[in-house]
Amino acid sequence: MAASDRAGSVRIRAEYAGLSAEQLLDITFEPQRPVSLVVLPSPNVLRNDDSDSARITLRLQAAGATATVADGTLVAVTVSQDGQALFSTTVSTSGGEAGFDFTTTASGLLLIEAQVTGSEVVGRGLLYAGEQPLAVIIPAAFADAERIDGVIQAGARFGFFLFNTSNRPIPLQGFVLENGGSMVAASNPAQLNGGWLDGGMQLGVIVTLDEAVVDQGIRASYLLVDPSSEQVARFGVVFSTPP
Fold first, then answer.
1. Is 23 contained in some domain?
2. Nearest in space to 32 (alpha carbons), one of 68, 76, 82
3. What pLDDT, on the 0 to 100 scale, is given for residue 7?
4. What is the 8-class DSSP label of residue 6?
5. What residues contact residue 175 under an 8 Å CB cut-off, 6+ apart?
6. I need a labelling partner for 180 at 20 to 30 A (CA). Which of 7, 55, 75, 190 fits?
7. CA distances from 22 to 2, 15, 70, 128, 206 (A)
8. What residues form DSSP beta bridges with 13?
């Protein structure tokens, strides 16, 4: 379907099998008319203690390429879970955007739905809330090692990775690879992306043993800080147990 960004009248003519028809179409162009809406929760994961908050930003696109949606445009917002409304509000735009701060005591995945009042322009976003905001981090690990008579041979490789599936940056305090509680290798925050596991980021450390070691239990762990409670949490993986 053709679209026009100019006002005026258009004459439409159609012909088929010797028959023809004409229609005069009046076009009214409103550059500031909202045509799309994006819901941007930041962060999109938060602790459900009714204190930790997310900023819900609503960004509207106007019909005109260089236009901005009129200030004061109303947007109705509902936050729901499993079809049940938990929160609703109406906000007005300024500079093409509107927003509000959101807290909750709900747990799980929440749906944010926003609609420009008096129009069919709708936007949706997702937000995760829970007692453990760090649950959005996905760990992965691998080991490429040979053990002979209880001894892990030189050249063995151990890798441990974290993937932050949220848009919330997570502070990192360090990484350590241990053998029976004794440190084999370590990385400080400066070596771990400056001490941050950014939103959408995968970060990993791979350690290669320079010499053989008696296997006393190889494990690796990261120390992370819950950004909402500032409590330190350990993410660990066990690669081996003593024979």
1. no
2. 68
3. 55
4. S
5. 160, 186, 187, 192, 205, 220, 221, 222, 223
6. 190
7. 17, 9, 36, 54, 72
8. 22
Neighbours of 128 (CB within 10 A): 21
Give yes or no for residue 3 having a pLDDT over 70.
Answer: no
Please spell the DSSP secondary structure of 165-187, one letter per residue: -SSS-EEEEEEEEEETTEEEEEE
Q: Is 190 helix (H, G, I), strand (E, B) or coil?
A: helix
Range of the domain at 81: 34-130
Q: Which residues pair with 109 in a beta bridge?
A: 128
- Does one domain contain both 223 and 148? yes
* 176: CATH: 2.60.40
Q: What is the largest CA-CA distance in the chain?
A: 93
Contact 100, 196 (CB under 8 A): no
Residues 182, 208 within the same domain: yes
Q: Which residues pair with 46 in a beta bridge?
A: 129
Nearest of 142, 110, 144, 114 to residue 127 by alpha carbon:
110
What pTM was estimated for this model as a whole? 0.79
44: domain CATH number is 2.60.40.10
Per-residue pLDDT tens digits for 123-178: 999 999 999 989 999 999 999 999 999 999 999 999 999 999 999 999 999 999 99
The last residue of a domain, from among 102, 130, 158:
130
- Residues 59 and 137 placed together within one structural domain of the fold: no
164, amino acid identity: N
Express as a percent the part of the chain with pLDDT over 70. Answer: 93
Q: Which two structure tokens, joined as six digits, stand for 216?
A: 């006393």
Residue 166 falls inside a structural domain: yes
- Sequence-separated (6 or more) residues with CB below 8 Å from residue 1: none
Query: Is residue 157, in this structure, part of any structural domain at all?
Result: yes
